[in-house]
Design a protein that fits this description.
The protein folds into three domains: about 90 residues, NAD(P)-binding Rossmann-like Domain (Rossmann fold), CATH 3.40.50; about 220 residues, UDP-N-acetylmuramoyl-L-alanine:D-glutamate ligase; about 150 residues, Mur ligase, C-terminal domain (Protein-Tyrosine Phosphatase, Chain A, Alpha-Beta Complex). It is globular. β4, α2 and β5 form a beta-alpha-beta unit. The chain is of the alpha/beta class and about 475 residues long.
Protein backbone atom coordinates (compact mmCIF):
# COMPACT_ATOMS: atom_id res chain seq x y z
CA UNK A 1 0.00 0.00 0.00
CA UNK A 2 1.21 3.50 -0.81
CA UNK A 3 1.91 6.15 1.78
CA UNK A 4 -1.13 8.01 3.06
CA UNK A 5 -1.37 11.58 1.70
CA UNK A 6 -1.13 14.30 4.31
CA UNK A 7 -3.63 16.52 2.47
CA UNK A 8 -6.78 15.63 0.54
CA UNK A 9 -7.01 18.95 -1.27
CA UNK A 10 -7.63 18.44 -4.99
CA UNK A 11 -7.75 14.62 -4.72
CA UNK A 12 -10.43 12.19 -5.78
CA UNK A 13 -11.33 10.47 -2.52
CA UNK A 14 -12.96 7.04 -2.50
CA UNK A 15 -14.97 5.75 0.46
CA UNK A 16 -15.99 2.11 0.69
CA UNK A 17 -18.96 1.79 3.05
CA UNK A 18 -21.24 4.56 4.25
CA UNK A 19 -21.89 3.95 7.92
CA UNK A 20 -20.77 6.27 10.72
CA UNK A 21 -17.11 6.19 9.72
CA UNK A 22 -17.84 6.51 6.01
CA UNK A 23 -20.02 9.57 6.55
CA UNK A 24 -17.41 11.05 8.87
CA UNK A 25 -14.67 10.60 6.27
CA UNK A 26 -16.88 12.16 3.59
CA UNK A 27 -17.30 15.25 5.76
CA UNK A 28 -13.56 15.26 6.47
CA UNK A 29 -12.70 15.03 2.76
CA UNK A 30 -15.13 17.82 1.89
CA UNK A 31 -13.69 20.06 4.62
CA UNK A 32 -10.21 19.35 3.23
CA UNK A 33 -11.37 20.54 -0.24
CA UNK A 34 -11.16 17.20 -2.04
CA UNK A 35 -11.87 17.58 -5.74
CA UNK A 36 -14.55 14.87 -5.59
CA UNK A 37 -15.78 12.15 -3.23
CA UNK A 38 -16.94 8.78 -4.55
CA UNK A 39 -18.79 6.57 -2.07
CA UNK A 40 -19.55 2.92 -2.81
CA UNK A 41 -21.92 1.40 -0.29
CA UNK A 42 -21.81 -2.26 -1.18
CA UNK A 43 -24.69 -3.16 1.13
CA UNK A 44 -26.77 -0.10 0.27
CA UNK A 45 -30.14 -0.29 -1.42
CA UNK A 46 -30.26 3.18 -2.87
CA UNK A 47 -32.82 4.40 -0.37
CA UNK A 48 -30.51 5.90 2.24
CA UNK A 49 -30.32 9.67 2.23
CA UNK A 50 -27.18 11.61 1.43
CA UNK A 51 -26.09 13.85 4.33
CA UNK A 52 -26.47 17.57 3.77
CA UNK A 53 -23.53 19.88 3.44
CA UNK A 54 -21.10 17.53 1.65
CA UNK A 55 -20.20 18.98 -1.73
CA UNK A 56 -18.95 17.04 -4.77
CA UNK A 57 -20.28 13.80 -3.29
CA UNK A 58 -21.45 10.82 -5.35
CA UNK A 59 -23.01 7.86 -3.55
CA UNK A 60 -23.28 4.57 -5.44
CA UNK A 61 -25.16 1.62 -3.95
CA UNK A 62 -24.24 -1.97 -4.81
CA UNK A 63 -21.08 -4.00 -5.28
CA UNK A 64 -21.21 -3.57 -9.06
CA UNK A 65 -19.82 -0.06 -8.53
CA UNK A 66 -16.66 -1.12 -6.64
CA UNK A 67 -14.60 -0.63 -9.80
CA UNK A 68 -15.06 3.12 -9.47
CA UNK A 69 -12.70 3.04 -6.49
CA UNK A 70 -9.82 2.17 -8.83
CA UNK A 71 -10.08 5.71 -10.20
CA UNK A 72 -9.57 7.35 -6.80
CA UNK A 73 -6.32 8.77 -5.43
CA UNK A 74 -6.97 7.37 -1.97
CA UNK A 75 -9.61 4.94 -0.66
CA UNK A 76 -10.92 4.94 2.90
CA UNK A 77 -12.28 1.51 3.81
CA UNK A 78 -14.95 0.99 6.47
CA UNK A 79 -14.32 -1.60 9.21
CA UNK A 80 -17.09 -3.87 7.95
CA UNK A 81 -15.25 -4.74 4.73
CA UNK A 82 -13.49 -8.12 5.27
CA UNK A 83 -9.72 -8.17 4.84
CA UNK A 84 -10.08 -11.14 2.47
CA UNK A 85 -12.68 -9.49 0.24
CA UNK A 86 -11.37 -10.11 -3.33
CA UNK A 87 -11.61 -6.46 -4.33
CA UNK A 88 -9.96 -5.32 -1.10
CA UNK A 89 -7.09 -7.71 -1.82
CA UNK A 90 -6.87 -6.30 -5.36
CA UNK A 91 -6.63 -2.74 -4.04
CA UNK A 92 -3.82 -3.67 -1.65
CA UNK A 93 -1.86 -5.46 -4.37
CA UNK A 94 -2.26 -2.50 -6.70
CA UNK A 95 -0.38 -0.16 -4.39
CA UNK A 96 -3.41 2.06 -4.02
CA UNK A 97 -3.33 4.46 -1.08
CA UNK A 98 -5.69 2.80 1.43
CA UNK A 99 -6.68 4.09 4.83
CA UNK A 100 -9.55 4.33 7.31
CA UNK A 101 -10.88 6.89 9.76
CA UNK A 102 -8.70 5.64 12.63
CA UNK A 103 -5.55 5.75 10.50
CA UNK A 104 -6.32 9.25 9.20
CA UNK A 105 -6.88 10.51 12.76
CA UNK A 106 -3.85 8.77 14.26
CA UNK A 107 -1.46 10.21 11.66
CA UNK A 108 -2.38 13.66 12.97
CA UNK A 109 -3.09 13.13 16.65
CA UNK A 110 -1.39 9.92 17.75
CA UNK A 111 0.93 11.72 20.14
CA UNK A 112 -1.98 12.72 22.40
CA UNK A 113 -3.85 9.43 22.14
CA UNK A 114 -4.12 6.24 24.18
CA UNK A 115 -5.23 3.39 21.94
CA UNK A 116 -7.11 0.52 23.55
CA UNK A 117 -7.68 -2.76 21.76
CA UNK A 118 -8.06 -6.45 22.63
CA UNK A 119 -10.56 -9.21 22.03
CA UNK A 120 -12.69 -8.35 25.02
CA UNK A 121 -12.79 -5.66 27.67
CA UNK A 122 -11.66 -2.79 25.45
CA UNK A 123 -14.87 -0.75 25.81
CA UNK A 124 -14.87 -1.00 29.60
CA UNK A 125 -11.13 -0.31 29.77
CA UNK A 126 -11.38 2.71 27.46
CA UNK A 127 -14.45 4.09 29.23
CA UNK A 128 -12.97 3.68 32.70
CA UNK A 129 -9.69 5.19 31.49
CA UNK A 130 -11.49 8.26 30.17
CA UNK A 131 -13.48 8.50 33.40
CA UNK A 132 -10.33 8.18 35.53
CA UNK A 133 -8.51 10.89 33.57
CA UNK A 134 -11.49 13.22 33.90
CA UNK A 135 -11.67 12.65 37.67
CA UNK A 136 -7.98 13.58 37.81
CA UNK A 137 -8.74 16.91 36.15
CA UNK A 138 -7.43 15.90 32.72
CA UNK A 139 -9.51 16.87 29.67
CA UNK A 140 -10.28 13.51 28.08
CA UNK A 141 -12.41 12.27 25.19
CA UNK A 142 -13.35 8.63 24.54
CA UNK A 143 -14.02 7.86 20.88
CA UNK A 144 -13.44 5.35 18.08
CA UNK A 145 -15.08 1.95 17.96
CA UNK A 146 -17.09 2.85 21.07
CA UNK A 147 -19.07 5.61 19.34
CA UNK A 148 -17.79 8.88 17.88
CA UNK A 149 -15.67 8.26 14.75
CA UNK A 150 -12.09 9.35 15.33
CA UNK A 151 -12.11 11.39 12.11
CA UNK A 152 -14.75 13.63 13.72
CA UNK A 153 -12.22 14.81 16.31
CA UNK A 154 -10.02 17.89 16.21
CA UNK A 155 -8.74 17.73 19.79
CA UNK A 156 -7.08 20.66 21.51
CA UNK A 157 -3.46 20.30 22.56
CA UNK A 158 -4.39 19.72 26.21
CA UNK A 159 -6.88 16.93 25.45
CA UNK A 160 -6.08 13.24 25.89
CA UNK A 161 -8.04 11.08 23.47
CA UNK A 162 -8.81 7.50 24.50
CA UNK A 163 -9.42 5.59 21.27
CA UNK A 164 -11.10 2.21 21.37
CA UNK A 165 -9.83 0.32 18.33
CA UNK A 166 -11.21 -2.85 16.77
CA UNK A 167 -8.97 -5.29 14.91
CA UNK A 168 -10.47 -4.02 11.65
CA UNK A 169 -9.43 -0.47 12.50
CA UNK A 170 -5.98 -1.56 13.69
CA UNK A 171 -5.35 -3.51 10.49
CA UNK A 172 -4.79 -0.31 8.49
CA UNK A 173 -2.95 1.76 11.09
CA UNK A 174 0.29 3.25 9.78
CA UNK A 175 0.73 5.41 12.90
CA UNK A 176 0.28 4.07 16.41
CA UNK A 177 -1.00 6.03 19.42
CA UNK A 178 1.52 7.24 21.99
CA UNK A 179 0.34 4.69 24.55
CA UNK A 180 -1.11 1.36 23.44
CA UNK A 181 -3.20 -1.03 25.56
CA UNK A 182 -4.00 -4.63 24.62
CA UNK A 183 -6.45 -6.11 27.11
CA UNK A 184 -6.23 -9.74 25.91
CA UNK A 185 -5.98 -11.83 22.75
CA UNK A 186 -8.46 -14.64 22.16
CA UNK A 187 -9.83 -16.33 19.06
CA UNK A 188 -12.35 -14.06 17.32
CA UNK A 189 -13.26 -12.40 13.99
CA UNK A 190 -11.84 -15.27 11.94
CA UNK A 191 -14.47 -14.55 9.28
CA UNK A 192 -12.92 -11.09 8.78
CA UNK A 193 -9.18 -11.83 9.06
CA UNK A 194 -9.05 -15.40 7.77
CA UNK A 195 -7.06 -16.95 10.62
CA UNK A 196 -6.15 -16.24 14.20
CA UNK A 197 -2.57 -15.24 13.40
CA UNK A 198 -3.71 -12.51 11.01
CA UNK A 199 -6.18 -11.31 13.65
CA UNK A 200 -3.49 -11.02 16.32
CA UNK A 201 -1.07 -9.28 13.93
CA UNK A 202 -3.74 -6.73 13.05
CA UNK A 203 -4.17 -6.00 16.76
CA UNK A 204 -0.42 -5.52 17.15
CA UNK A 205 -0.51 -2.49 14.84
CA UNK A 206 -1.77 -0.58 17.87
CA UNK A 207 1.89 -0.35 18.95
CA UNK A 208 4.07 -1.46 16.01
CA UNK A 209 4.05 1.88 14.22
CA UNK A 210 5.55 4.26 16.72
CA UNK A 211 3.94 3.80 20.16
CA UNK A 212 6.33 4.73 22.96
CA UNK A 213 4.53 2.60 25.56
CA UNK A 214 2.62 -0.70 25.64
CA UNK A 215 0.40 -1.86 28.52
CA UNK A 216 -0.70 -5.51 28.49
CA UNK A 217 -0.52 -8.80 30.36
CA UNK A 218 2.17 -11.46 30.25
CA UNK A 219 -0.24 -13.67 28.29
CA UNK A 220 -0.46 -11.05 25.54
CA UNK A 221 3.34 -10.78 25.38
CA UNK A 222 3.52 -14.56 25.02
CA UNK A 223 1.01 -14.60 22.16
CA UNK A 224 2.95 -11.89 20.34
CA UNK A 225 6.26 -13.69 20.85
CA UNK A 226 4.84 -16.89 19.36
CA UNK A 227 3.87 -14.88 16.28
CA UNK A 228 7.40 -13.53 16.01
CA UNK A 229 6.49 -10.05 17.25
CA UNK A 230 9.38 -9.36 19.61
CA UNK A 231 10.10 -5.70 18.86
CA UNK A 232 8.05 -3.92 21.51
CA UNK A 233 7.83 -0.21 22.43
CA UNK A 234 10.60 1.32 24.58
CA UNK A 235 8.41 1.22 27.68
CA UNK A 236 6.54 -2.01 28.42
CA UNK A 237 4.20 -2.14 31.43
CA UNK A 238 3.11 -5.72 32.11
CA UNK A 239 0.16 -6.04 34.49
CA UNK A 240 -0.02 -9.36 36.33
CA UNK A 241 -3.59 -10.22 37.41
CA UNK A 242 -2.24 -11.98 40.51
CA UNK A 243 -0.47 -8.83 41.65
CA UNK A 244 -3.31 -6.34 41.29
CA UNK A 245 -4.37 -4.62 44.49
CA UNK A 246 -7.75 -3.06 43.83
CA UNK A 247 -9.97 -0.86 45.98
CA UNK A 248 -13.38 -2.14 46.95
CA UNK A 249 -16.52 -0.02 46.87
CA UNK A 250 -16.56 2.25 49.88
CA UNK A 251 -12.78 2.19 50.01
CA UNK A 252 -12.45 5.82 48.87
CA UNK A 253 -12.60 7.33 52.36
CA UNK A 254 -10.27 4.73 53.84
CA UNK A 255 -7.95 5.08 50.88
CA UNK A 256 -7.88 8.86 51.13
CA UNK A 257 -5.27 8.61 53.86
CA UNK A 258 -3.04 6.63 51.53
CA UNK A 259 -1.56 9.50 49.62
CA UNK A 260 0.92 7.25 47.88
CA UNK A 261 0.94 3.77 46.44
CA UNK A 262 0.12 2.48 42.99
CA UNK A 263 -2.60 -0.07 42.54
CA UNK A 264 -0.59 -2.30 40.22
CA UNK A 265 2.46 -3.03 42.37
CA UNK A 266 3.16 -6.64 43.33
CA UNK A 267 4.06 -5.59 46.87
CA UNK A 268 0.55 -4.33 47.46
CA UNK A 269 -1.30 -7.47 46.44
CA UNK A 270 -4.25 -8.09 48.70
CA UNK A 271 -6.27 -10.45 46.55
CA UNK A 272 -8.67 -9.85 43.70
CA UNK A 273 -12.15 -8.54 44.26
CA UNK A 274 -14.94 -10.80 43.08
CA UNK A 275 -18.06 -9.07 44.34
CA UNK A 276 -20.92 -8.78 41.86
CA UNK A 277 -23.45 -6.01 41.70
CA UNK A 278 -24.46 -3.80 38.83
CA UNK A 279 -24.85 -0.64 40.91
CA UNK A 280 -22.78 2.39 40.04
CA UNK A 281 -19.34 1.99 41.56
CA UNK A 282 -19.42 -1.81 41.61
CA UNK A 283 -19.01 -2.77 37.97
CA UNK A 284 -15.24 -2.32 38.22
CA UNK A 285 -15.05 -4.84 41.05
CA UNK A 286 -16.01 -7.75 38.78
CA UNK A 287 -13.01 -10.05 38.60
CA UNK A 288 -12.35 -9.46 34.90
CA UNK A 289 -12.89 -5.70 35.25
CA UNK A 290 -10.32 -5.49 38.04
CA UNK A 291 -7.73 -6.39 35.41
CA UNK A 292 -9.29 -4.01 32.87
CA UNK A 293 -9.12 -1.26 35.48
CA UNK A 294 -5.51 -1.98 36.35
CA UNK A 295 -4.57 -1.77 32.66
CA UNK A 296 -6.36 1.58 32.47
CA UNK A 297 -4.52 2.91 35.52
CA UNK A 298 -1.16 1.87 34.08
CA UNK A 299 -1.96 3.58 30.76
CA UNK A 300 -3.06 6.76 32.52
CA UNK A 301 0.15 6.86 34.56
CA UNK A 302 2.25 6.55 31.42
CA UNK A 303 0.29 9.25 29.62
CA UNK A 304 0.33 11.84 32.41
CA UNK A 305 3.77 10.81 33.68
CA UNK A 306 2.90 10.41 37.36
CA UNK A 307 1.72 7.75 39.74
CA UNK A 308 -1.98 7.57 40.55
CA UNK A 309 -2.78 6.97 44.20
CA UNK A 310 -5.04 4.26 45.51
CA UNK A 311 -7.42 6.93 46.83
CA UNK A 312 -7.72 8.44 43.33
CA UNK A 313 -8.42 5.05 41.83
CA UNK A 314 -10.97 4.24 44.54
CA UNK A 315 -12.86 7.46 43.83
CA UNK A 316 -12.98 6.67 40.10
CA UNK A 317 -14.13 3.10 40.77
CA UNK A 318 -16.89 4.29 43.09
CA UNK A 319 -18.25 6.81 40.57
CA UNK A 320 -18.07 4.63 37.43
CA UNK A 321 -21.25 3.01 36.10
CA UNK A 322 -21.91 -0.05 33.96
CA UNK A 323 -21.85 0.23 30.17
CA UNK A 324 -24.88 -0.80 28.10
CA UNK A 325 -24.97 -4.45 27.04
CA UNK A 326 -22.09 -5.43 29.32
CA UNK A 327 -23.47 -7.24 32.36
CA UNK A 328 -26.22 -4.65 32.51
CA UNK A 329 -29.26 -5.47 34.64
CA UNK A 330 -32.15 -4.43 32.41
CA UNK A 331 -35.16 -5.82 34.27
CA UNK A 332 -36.10 -7.15 37.70
CA UNK A 333 -39.13 -9.42 37.91
CA UNK A 334 -41.00 -11.14 40.65
CA UNK A 335 -41.80 -9.95 44.11
CA UNK A 336 -40.91 -10.80 47.66
CA UNK A 337 -37.53 -11.69 49.06
CA UNK A 338 -36.21 -13.40 45.94
CA UNK A 339 -36.68 -11.35 42.76
CA UNK A 340 -35.07 -12.33 39.46
CA UNK A 341 -32.52 -10.07 37.79
CA UNK A 342 -32.39 -10.15 33.98
CA UNK A 343 -28.95 -9.25 32.67
CA UNK A 344 -28.05 -8.11 29.15
CA UNK A 345 -24.53 -9.19 28.22
CA UNK A 346 -25.07 -9.33 24.46
CA UNK A 347 -21.56 -8.04 23.77
CA UNK A 348 -20.21 -11.32 25.15
CA UNK A 349 -19.39 -12.92 21.80
CA UNK A 350 -16.65 -15.39 22.79
CA UNK A 351 -16.36 -18.28 25.21
CA UNK A 352 -13.97 -16.32 27.39
CA UNK A 353 -16.60 -13.58 27.75
CA UNK A 354 -19.23 -16.08 28.88
CA UNK A 355 -16.89 -17.44 31.55
CA UNK A 356 -16.12 -13.89 32.71
CA UNK A 357 -19.83 -13.13 32.98
CA UNK A 358 -20.55 -16.29 34.98
CA UNK A 359 -17.58 -15.57 37.24
CA UNK A 360 -19.03 -12.13 37.96
CA UNK A 361 -22.24 -13.61 39.36
CA UNK A 362 -22.50 -14.09 43.11
CA UNK A 363 -21.51 -17.62 44.20
CA UNK A 364 -24.90 -18.16 45.83
CA UNK A 365 -26.90 -17.22 42.71
CA UNK A 366 -28.87 -19.74 40.68
CA UNK A 367 -28.22 -18.65 37.09
CA UNK A 368 -30.18 -19.33 33.92
CA UNK A 369 -27.63 -18.84 31.14
CA UNK A 370 -28.87 -18.14 27.60
CA UNK A 371 -26.27 -18.83 24.89
CA UNK A 372 -26.32 -18.91 21.11
CA UNK A 373 -25.87 -16.69 18.08
CA UNK A 374 -24.03 -16.65 14.76
CA UNK A 375 -21.71 -19.62 14.36
CA UNK A 376 -18.14 -18.45 13.69
CA UNK A 377 -16.48 -21.80 14.46
CA UNK A 378 -15.02 -20.68 17.77
CA UNK A 379 -13.70 -23.00 20.46
CA UNK A 380 -16.00 -23.19 23.51
CA UNK A 381 -14.05 -25.68 25.63
CA UNK A 382 -13.49 -23.07 28.32
CA UNK A 383 -17.26 -22.68 28.76
CA UNK A 384 -17.67 -26.42 29.27
CA UNK A 385 -14.75 -26.49 31.70
CA UNK A 386 -16.29 -23.72 33.80
CA UNK A 387 -19.83 -25.12 33.73
CA UNK A 388 -18.66 -28.62 34.63
CA UNK A 389 -16.49 -27.30 37.47
CA UNK A 390 -19.61 -26.48 39.47
CA UNK A 391 -18.33 -22.98 40.30
CA UNK A 392 -21.83 -21.64 39.64
CA UNK A 393 -25.22 -23.34 39.68
CA UNK A 394 -26.42 -23.02 36.10
CA UNK A 395 -29.45 -23.95 34.05
CA UNK A 396 -28.16 -23.85 30.47
CA UNK A 397 -30.52 -22.58 27.76
CA UNK A 398 -29.18 -23.24 24.25
CA UNK A 399 -30.76 -20.90 21.69
CA UNK A 400 -30.23 -20.50 17.92
CA UNK A 401 -28.14 -20.50 15.92
CA UNK A 402 -25.17 -22.24 17.56
CA UNK A 403 -26.36 -22.64 21.14
CA UNK A 404 -26.13 -26.43 21.03
CA UNK A 405 -22.38 -26.08 20.40
CA UNK A 406 -21.86 -24.10 23.60
CA UNK A 407 -21.73 -26.27 26.71
CA UNK A 408 -22.02 -29.61 24.90
CA UNK A 409 -20.19 -31.61 27.56
CA UNK A 410 -22.22 -29.97 30.31
CA UNK A 411 -25.41 -30.78 28.38
CA UNK A 412 -24.41 -34.44 28.12
CA UNK A 413 -23.53 -34.66 31.81
CA UNK A 414 -26.52 -32.60 33.04
CA UNK A 415 -29.41 -33.18 30.62
CA UNK A 416 -32.00 -32.13 33.19
CA UNK A 417 -30.27 -28.76 33.54
CA UNK A 418 -30.06 -28.13 29.80
CA UNK A 419 -32.84 -26.73 27.63
CA UNK A 420 -32.68 -26.47 23.83
CA UNK A 421 -35.05 -23.80 22.50
CA UNK A 422 -36.11 -22.59 19.06
CA UNK A 423 -35.82 -18.82 19.57
CA UNK A 424 -34.79 -16.07 21.94
CA UNK A 425 -38.43 -15.62 22.89
CA UNK A 426 -38.62 -19.30 23.84
CA UNK A 427 -35.42 -18.87 25.84
CA UNK A 428 -36.96 -16.03 27.87
CA UNK A 429 -40.13 -18.03 28.56
CA UNK A 430 -38.09 -21.10 29.51
CA UNK A 431 -35.98 -19.07 31.93
CA UNK A 432 -39.07 -17.48 33.48
CA UNK A 433 -40.60 -20.92 34.11
CA UNK A 434 -37.56 -22.32 35.93
CA UNK A 435 -37.91 -22.42 39.74
CA UNK A 436 -35.63 -20.57 42.14
CA UNK A 437 -33.69 -18.58 39.53
CA UNK A 438 -31.89 -15.49 40.84
CA UNK A 439 -30.33 -14.32 37.57
CA UNK A 440 -31.19 -14.76 33.91
CA UNK A 441 -28.00 -14.03 32.00
CA UNK A 442 -28.09 -13.43 28.24
CA UNK A 443 -24.41 -13.94 27.49
CA UNK A 444 -24.59 -15.51 24.02
CA UNK A 445 -20.93 -16.32 23.34
CA UNK A 446 -21.55 -15.46 19.70
CA UNK A 447 -22.36 -12.48 17.50
CA UNK A 448 -25.97 -11.49 16.86
CA UNK A 449 -25.95 -11.10 13.08
CA UNK A 450 -27.53 -14.47 12.37
CA UNK A 451 -31.05 -13.44 13.40
CA UNK A 452 -30.72 -9.77 14.42
CA UNK A 453 -29.34 -6.62 12.85
CA UNK A 454 -26.82 -6.28 15.67
CA UNK A 455 -26.37 -6.81 19.42
CA UNK A 456 -28.51 -3.78 20.22
CA UNK A 457 -31.44 -5.26 18.31
CA UNK A 458 -30.99 -8.56 20.12
CA UNK A 459 -30.90 -6.79 23.49
CA UNK A 460 -34.04 -4.83 22.61
CA UNK A 461 -35.84 -8.04 21.65
CA UNK A 462 -34.71 -9.64 24.91
CA UNK A 463 -36.19 -6.77 26.92
CA UNK A 464 -39.38 -6.89 24.88
CA UNK A 465 -39.86 -10.58 25.53
CA UNK A 466 -39.31 -10.05 29.26
CA UNK A 467 -41.89 -7.27 29.27
CA UNK A 468 -44.33 -9.62 27.56
CA UNK A 469 -44.18 -12.21 30.31
CA UNK A 470 -47.35 -12.80 32.31
CA UNK A 471 -47.13 -12.06 36.01
CA UNK A 472 -45.69 -9.27 38.11
CA UNK A 473 -42.84 -7.27 36.67
CA UNK A 474 -40.66 -5.37 39.05
CA UNK A 475 -38.46 -2.62 37.68
CA UNK A 476 -36.98 -1.54 34.39
CA UNK A 477 -33.35 -0.68 35.00
Amino acid sequence: MAELPTDLRGLTVGIWGFGLEGISMARTAAAAHAASIVVVDEAGDGTSGVPDGIVDLEVLNGQEHLGRLRECDVVFVSPGVPWRHPFFEELRRSGKKISNAADWYMARNGSQTIGVTGTKGKSTTASFLGHLLSRLGIRAVVAGNIGTPLSDLVPGEDVVVVAELSSQQCALLTTSPAVAVITNLYEDHLDWHGDVGAYYLAKSNVFRNGAHSLVCTRDVVGVLERLGVTSLPPELRVVDPADVSWPTVGDRVAGASEATGRVTGASEATGRVTGASEATGRVMTYQHNVLNGALAVAAAELMINREITRAEVAEAVESFGALPHRLQTVRTTGSGARPTRWIDDTLATTGESVVAALSAMRPEDNVALIVGGMDRHLDYQQVDAYLCSGARRVELIQAPSNGVLIGRTYANEHPTKTHVVASLEDAVHTAAALPDIDVVLLSPGAASYDLFKNYKAKAAAYCGFIDGLAGPVGTRN
